[in-house]
């Protein structure tokens, strides 16, 4: 039996302006630059301001004060299109300057660090020297296009064959693909287009001169005893290869120190990414100077050309002219674009205000770090910042995510400053990042012939005043990228120990 029920709920919906502000808040400096360019391309009423924009805004504001503030009209189509309301607010027109503190000295603190360079074009240039025929070139293009960012080819040969047949209507065999793949693997960097780590390392070893010490043993070890190599079963390797400690160590060192397990990492992406700090923080004359970097964001204002059109429309309305030189469709277009531009400028302003508040709160909570640098980080969570600026924790999270700050000690992601606290045996609260740094030091200094287990690491930390469970040590070790004890084992010769 069907029944009808009424239920009353209270729901909070975000306005388009709030949604726009939230989206802008999530953007870093470079993404904001592109977002502003896109908005200016879409909205003709937005334009870049000139150097005397503030002076012009004051002069126009004074002129507008002499005009009437309300428009009386009987035309229902004009009821919501109050030109005076739109035009008589210079703050909306000129309220955004990307960086009020902009100056030459900002260049000293602005850092752009190259994160990756393109290799795809370089590989294609090298392929052009191999004198491939048309079919081989199709196969090579498909292989290069399938290489992952770390330089590996993880697509199956059968999939490459299917792709060429589907996209180019050309039939090739598995032998055809394997033959071209060998030629791609002969390109630089050595190890590119390998299908797994074993193949990647072997490609690099085989391209070394035959007289490199340890090369032949390393090749034999990877070809015939790869599992024992990955497990660091030194005893088995010495027995199977009939070698002593010195020969085994030479081969291992050759692999670990001379070979690249990810030949394409940081180089294969076709896009060049940059880290541009969103803030700079300086300690000057016993005070912190916080600057929101806006060098990539132009000054914004309402277009003077369209502003004159709006003023003309207002004048015609005031004279009660029956025939206007601007049709209703144009008026509606101008009204919508004007409001969109105003919302965008206000959202940019609100973003700048919120980001500055968050950065200021972080500096307050991490004052010792910004004065003295590493080793002075305090436990801090998002809620601590939210409490200071009286905003929702989600707002703080959006500001922190993907943003960077230039300090006197280098560039740091804002997430770096947030960490949980741990209590020492003396009752002092420290950041877990400090504990991780100590854990890394302990591992670096351990006996490599007998690496410490997670429980031994926990015991050592407790001796230093940090009582931490073994499972927590294991978690921190994984976060630091430290292998388990067995895989940290190294061959140390007797003369090296002495």
TrEMBL record:
Annotated stretches, region: Disordered: 41-108
Key words, A-Z: DNA-binding, DNA-directed RNA polymerase, Nucleotidyltransferase, Sigma factor, Transcription, Transcription regulation, Transferase
InterPro entries the record matches: RNA_pol_sigma_54, RNA_pol_sigma_54_core-bd, RNA_pol_sigma_54_DNA-bd, RpoN_core-bd_sf
The RNA polymerase sigma factor 54 core-binding domain, residue ranges: 110-306
Gene Ontology cellular component list: DNA-directed RNA polymerase complex
Gene Ontology BP terms: DNA-templated transcription initiation
Amino acid composition bias (Acidic residues), ranges on this chain: 61-85
MF term (GO), any: nucleotidyltransferase activity
Domain RNA polymerase sigma factor 54 DNA-binding per the UniProt entry, residue ranges: 332-489
Pfam families assigned to the protein according to its UniProt record, in alphabetical order: Sigma54_AID, Sigma54_CBD, Sigma54_DBD
Similarity field: Belongs to the sigma-54 factor family.
NCBIfam families: rpoN_sigma (TIGR02395)
The protein's name in its UniProt record: RNA polymerase sigma-54 factor
């Amino acid at each position: 039996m069907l029944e009808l029920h009424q239920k009353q709920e209270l729901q909070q919906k975000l306005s388009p302006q709030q949604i726009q502000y939230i989206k802008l808040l999530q953007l870093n400096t470079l993404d904001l630059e592109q977002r502003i360019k896109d908005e200016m391309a879409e909205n003709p009423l937005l334009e870049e301001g000139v150097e005397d924009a503030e002076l012009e805004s004051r002069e126009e504001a004074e002129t507008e004060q002499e005009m009437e503030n309300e428009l009386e009209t009987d035309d229902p189509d004009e009821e919501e299109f109050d030109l005076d309301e739109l035009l008589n607010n210079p703050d909306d027109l000129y309220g955004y300057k990307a960086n009020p503190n902009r100056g030459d000295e900002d260049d000293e603190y602005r850092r752009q660090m190259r994160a990756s360079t393109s290799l795809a074009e370089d590989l294609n240039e090298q392929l052009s020297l191999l004198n491939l025929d048309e079919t081989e070139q199709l196969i090579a293009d498909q292989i290069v296009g399938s290489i992952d960012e770390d330089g590996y080819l993880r697509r199956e040969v059968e999939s490459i064959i299917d792709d060429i047949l589907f996209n180019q209507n050309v039939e090739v065999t598995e032998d055809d693909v394997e033959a071209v793949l060998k030629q791609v693997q002969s390109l630089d960097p050595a190890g590119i287009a390998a299908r797994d780590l074993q193949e990647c390392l072997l490609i690099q070893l085989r391209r070394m001169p035959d007289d490199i010490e340890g090369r032949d043993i390393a090749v034999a070890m990877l070809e015939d005893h790869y599992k024992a190599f990955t497990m660091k079963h030194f005893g088995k390797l010495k027995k199977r290869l009939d070698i002593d400690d010195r020969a085994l160590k030479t081969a291992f060192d050759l692999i670990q120190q001379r070979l690249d397990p990810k030949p394409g990492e940081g180089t294969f992406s076709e896009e060049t990414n940059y880290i541009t700090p969103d803030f700079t923080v300086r300690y000057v004359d016993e005070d912190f100077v916080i600057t929101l970097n806006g060098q990539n964001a132009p000054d914004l204002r309402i277009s003077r050309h369209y502003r004159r059109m709006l003023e003309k429309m207002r004048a015609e309305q005031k004279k009660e002219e029956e025939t206007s030189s601007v049709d209703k469709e144009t008026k509606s277009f101008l009204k919508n674009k004007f409001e969109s531009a105003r919302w965008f400028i206000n959202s940019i302003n609100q973003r700048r205000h919120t980001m500055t508040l968050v950065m200021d709160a972080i500096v307050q909570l991490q004052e010792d770090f910004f004065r003295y640098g590493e080793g002075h980080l305090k436990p801090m969570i998002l809620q601590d910042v939210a409490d200071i600026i009286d905003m929702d924790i989600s707002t703080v999270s959006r500001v922190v995510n993907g943003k960077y700050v230039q300090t006197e000690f280098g560039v740091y992601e804002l997430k770096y400053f947030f960490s949980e606290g741990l209590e020492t045996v003396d009752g002092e609260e420290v950041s877990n990042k400090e504990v991780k740094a100590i854990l890394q030091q302990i591992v670096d200094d351990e006996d490599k012939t007998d690496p410490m287990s997670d429980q031994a690491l926990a015991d050592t930390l407790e001796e230093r005043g940090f009582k931490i469970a073994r499972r927590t040590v294991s978690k921190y070790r994984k976060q630091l990228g430290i292998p388990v004890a067995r895989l940290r084992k190294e061959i140390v010769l007797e003369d090296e120990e002495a």
